[in-house]
Amino acid sequence: MDSTKKQSWVQYPDGYLSKTPIWQYILVTLVFPFWAMAAALNDILITQFKTVFTLNDTATALVQFAFYGGYFLLALPAAVIIRKNTYKFAILTGLTFFIIGCALFFPASHMATYGMFLGAVFVIAIGLSFLETSCDTYSTMIGPKSTANLRINISQLLIPIGNITGIVLGKYLVFAGHGNMEDEVKGMSAAEKLAYNKEVLQLTLKPYKYILVALIILFILIAITKMPYSKAAPKKDAQGVEEKKPSTGESVGYLIHNKRFMKAVGAQFLYAGMQTCVWSFTIRFALRIIPGITDHAATNYMIIGYAAFFIGKLPATWLMHRFSITKVMTWYGILGTLSLVFAFTYHGTAAIWGAVMSDFFFGPFWPTIYAHGLDQVHEKKYTETGGAFMVMSLIGGSLVPLLMGRVSDLSGSMQLSFVVPAVCFALIAIYFFSEHRWEQAHPDQVQEH
């Protein structure tokens, strides 16, 4: 536990603080855009690898499978480490793996094998699993309970900034100097294509160089800063003996039988799958339906989409502090579903704007489902494992894009495959509508904050 001498906050028994320590909160919040950068660069890598390694849409989805598969496999072990150590230790562990994963892109670019790149992406995902499991929960705990939802929403505001940064780095460092890669390799001899592929893969290194430097600086700042413990104090029995920390098995058992919490995990699974589908396929969707557009120009739709993602968070945050959170989210879900319906039904280049518009409605879902789900964990000794379950639900970002890629390959229409995220969005809207109905029936048990 970090020393608590000369600290400006008081920690309460439930783990929340009397005030939010600003510098520490800023450091935690600065971690958020970095995992967004990694996710955004995946969208660039998918477009690049499709040409370099001659992949179909299902095979390109393996990038996201490796990325979110790492989240799934490591979230629970990360929660165990958090439970036995501190949030600070978990964050530093996550940054270490993130740094190692980025460094692996250097040998991967020289070996020029799809498997090596997937391995590097997987190691990055291990780091991000630690970071999201710790930072999402830590952001809610590092201050007063009454502003927990506000804190995580503010932290999450930096995620679209990270997304935009990632896609801009990809646009100007990876796609710079190239038009449509698929068109460029047509007619090349085997030797010419091999040389071209080596050149393109070397461009992959450029954004990761800058990310590595920034990660190392952030690692040092967090390492030398005193961070709040922000964990619930163990309960004591009548004899004053501290209650033992729950085992992983006990925690999992409690959470699995908590129906409303598990519904939130399911909604988060769908959200992760839906968001990953749209972001992974938007660039290629633009390349398919807009005649003559280059890879470089197609990334503009992702930049606009990420900007819409950021802008969409702002009115949602304002509305959720004035109206029922579940009601606001229900309407966001309905409008987002309609945007994606337009994307896969409209016959014309404007269909791409349906996919872009859905980004506006994505904004508040991840942090809101996360905080709403943890609200259902009334025994706070299970909070760390509950946060791990929420992060494990990101496996949706691994599996649902595979389904979307399969629909695209089998139907021969990438546009039609957007029915997959549309169904996910509709189910999320139904989830929040059911939660809103439950809250209307049990107003005395509503724990929104």
Question: What would the principal axes of the Cα set say about the shape?
Answer: globular
CATH T-level topology: Growth Hormone, Chain: A
Distance between the termini: 28 Å
The largest pleated sheet is described as: none
Explain the overall architecture.
The protein has 449 residues and is mostly helical. The chain has a single domain, classed as Growth Hormone, Chain: A, CATH 1.20.1250.20. The chain has helices at residues 22-52, 57-60, 62-84, 87-103, 105-111, 114-141, 148-174, 181-185, 190-203, 205-223, 248-256, 259-289, 295-320, 325-345, 351-362, 365-375, 383-392, 396-411, 419-441. Helix 3 packs across helix 6 and helix 14 (325-345) runs antiparallel to helix 15. It is globular and about 80 Å long. The model has no long low-confidence stretch (mean pLDDT 83). InterPro entries: Lfuc_symporter_FucP, MFS, MFS_trans_sf, MFS_TsgA-like. It is a multi-pass membrane protein. GO terms for molecular function: fucose:proton symporter activity. Keywords: Cell membrane, Membrane, Transmembrane, Transmembrane helix.
Task: Itemize the secondary structure elements and their pairings.
Layout: H1 22-52, H2 57-60, H3 62-84, H4 87-103, H5 105-111, H6 114-141, H7 148-174, H8 181-185, H9 190-203, H10 205-223, H11 248-256, H12 259-289, H13 295-320, H14 325-345, H15 351-362, H16 365-375, H17 383-392, H18 396-411, H19 419-441
